[in-house]
Design a protein that fits this description.
The structure holds two protein chains of two kinds.
Chain A (H helix, E strand, L loop, with lengths): L12 H4 L2 H13 L1 H9 L17 E2 L12 H6 L12 H5 L9 E6 L5 E4 H5 L5 E8 L4 E11 H7 L8 E6 L19 E5 H5 L4 E6 L2 E2 L9 E3 L12 E7 L6 H5 L23 E4 L9 E2 L7 H4 L13
Parallel strand pairs in A: 1-4, 2-11, 5-12
Antiparallel strand pairs in A: 2-3, 4-5, 5-8, 6-7, 6-11, 8-9, 8-10, 12-13
Chain B lengths: L2 H26 L11 H30 L8 H23 L4 H10 L1 H18 L3 H7 L1 H7 L1 H16 L5 H36 L1
Helix pairs in contact in B: 1-2, 1-3, 2-3, 2-8, 2-9, 3-5, 4-5, 5-8, 6-7, 8-9
The chains are: A alpha+beta, B mainly alpha.
């Protein structure tokens, strides 16, 4: 059975972006951002192979990458839905500049044997990073292709020895209105909460993400630690995670709570189930020309071979 | 004010009203560092829709301004503002069909009949057409009282337009709420005025009986 990415030879970031642009961006980032990151990381940075320019030691995962050309770093880092930093698409790039994503702690608790609060460095230390070029489909019917850097969430979760009561994973974003200006308003219930069923969390596609285009994640893309679940709508990809909890009951997630008729817990990409106010059958791909046709949206965002079996027997119109 | 000053002023206002369209045109070609961002189609769609509503509200401001400032100066611009609302709503619709929906008329039609916020937006656009068509001075003369009656449709159109915006946003309703508040004040003013003039009529009638 051919997978959508089976014939792929992974595209390195340097192949996707014209080389001159890629290099000039490197120089640019090395100037400010990179130095700041290096300072924040101190000695620990060597533990996960990060150099002074913010570049990460990354192995490409060819099996889990699509062959389509990735969107530019600029598009990916200036067109963001991240309400903690404002509701406009360009707000996060503007308002997250001062955000301190290091030092960072993550609390892991609930139905697991190993609990506690860990530094980001401790969280990341045992994992080797891989690059995966994933499709990203927003519930607003636009899409991008993004070269993420991360490691399987399953590998992280196993370290904390979930008990037999652990049926779901709940993730929370930092709650700090001083650091995150959007949290001073009430457009959503803060902190942002997301969740996955345990088997979804353990699926090899589910990626704990720390980087983009071979570098440390920019703040507006969810630094220092975010979730990527490529077969689900983008809002499942919770950003700036500081709490992971193993739970028995399905978590009440932020968007599902905010508008239960419009956003479900599962939020699997599904062209057959429309949002009540717009069609999900097609998507507009970011970064093309004005005259590009809308693209047909794929069931499970094209990852059906990997994940459709998770939902056998479920009515996906009910559990949208 | 001399005729020359008046036409100069009108020309300046006209150019200013073209500002958003010029921004979109320049941005679409990426000239002089102007960019419409990562999703230029969305930016065009929203900018045009937004300015349609702004011009509708500006048009509705002209009568209260006349009453408050006791000068008919403002009314000279009312037709221009109204026609700019029409201009931007046509652009909004054109961007939606041609770029956002890639010219798929069947999908557009499905959207119009299936999605309430698009239905009312479409209705508002259709209602604007007779107003734009009868906006000339000669039509105004020809239709007389009927012209005034017809052009009261602007109240309905503005309500539908703001409603369309409110229903269309994902979650952050602050801006549609602001538009709704301004519209409520402008429509409230007219209700108040009508109430006042009725009261006056009653008073006069009472006096004449006495």
């Amino acid at each position: 059975m051919p997978r959508p990415w089976s014939k792929s030879i992974l595209i390195a970031p340097s192949d996707i972006t014209p080389e001159d642009k890629f290099l000039s961006r490197r120089t640019l980032l090395a100037g400010g951002f990179g130095i700041a990151v290096a300072h924040a990381l101190g000695v620990e940075r060597r533990a996960f192979g990060e150099d002074t320019s913010g570049a990460l030691a990354v192995t490409r995962n060819t099996e889990y990458s699509v062959t389509e050309a990735a969107n530019s770093y600029k598009d990916i880092s200036t067109y963001n839905n991240y309400y903690e930093f404002g509701t406009g698409k360009s707000d996060p790039a503007e308002n997250a500049k001062q955000f301190r994503s290091r030092p960072w702690n993550v609390t892991i608790d609930g139905e697991c044997e190993v609990k506690g609060t860990f530094s980001l460095e401790d969280i990341l230390k045992p994992h080797s990073l891989e690059e995966r070029v994933y499709r990203m489909r927003c519930v607003e019917a636009w899409s991008m292709i993004v070269p993420w850097v991360g490691f399987p969430l399953a590998d992280l979760l196993k370290r904390f020895k979930p008990t037999s009561n652990a049926k779901f994973i709940e993730f929370r974003t930092l709650l700090d209105p001083k650091e995150m200006p959007g949290e001073r308003g009430s457009v959503l219930d803060w902190p942002y909460i997301e969740g996955l069923r345990l088997d979804e969390a353990m699926n090899p596609l589910t990626l704990m993400t720390v980087g983009l285009y071979g570098k440390v994640l920019p703040n507006q893309n969810g630094a220092p630690l975010r979730l990527i679940v490529p077969w689900k709508y983008g809002f499942k990809g919770i950003k700036a995670i500081n709490h992971i909890k193993f739970v028995e009951r399905m978590p009440v997630t932020t968007w599902a709570k905010s508008a239960p008729s419009e956003y479900g817990f599962y939020a699997n990409v599904n062209p057959a189930v429309d949002h009540p106010r717009w069609s999900q059958a097609t998507e507009r791909h970011i970064g093309g020309s004005f005259f590009d046709q809308r693209r047909p949206t794929l069931a499970f965002n094209g990852y059906g071979k990997e994940v459709a079996s998770l939902y056998t027997g479920m009515n996906l119109k009910t559990f949208f | 004010m001399t005729a020359a000053t008046r036409s100069l002023l009108k020309a300046l206002v006209f150019i200013a009203c073209l500002g958003p369209a010029i921004y979109l045109l320049v941005g679409a070609f990426g000239l002089w560092g102007v960019s419409l961002g990562a999703d230029p189609v969305q930016e065009m769609l929203h900018t045009c829709g937004n300015w349609t509503l702004k011009f509708l509200l500006i048009t509705l401001c002209m009568t209260p301004l006349r009453d408050l400032a006791r000068t008919t100066f403002w009314l000279r611009f009312r037709r221009m503002f109204g026609l700019f609302a029409f201009f931007y709503v046509i652009l909004h619709f054109a961007v939606y069909i041609v770029f956002d929906q890639s010219g798929q008329l069947e999908t557009v039609w499905q959207d119009i009949i299936k999605r309430p916020y698009i239905t009312i937006g479409m209705l508002a656009l259709l209602l604007l057409i007779p107003l734009a068509a009868t906006s000339t001075a000669s039509m105004q003369r020809r239709l007389r009282r009927r012209w005034t009656q017809l052009h009261r449709l602007i109240y309905v159109i503005a309500v539908l337009g703001v409603w369309h915006y409110w229903w269309g946003v994902k979650k952050d309703i602050r801006e549609p709420l602001l538009f709704a508040c301004v519209l409520a004040v402008l429509l409230g003013y007219r209700v108040y005025k009508q109430h006042q003039s009725k009261a006056q009529v009653r008073e006069v009638a009472a006096h004449s009986r006495a």
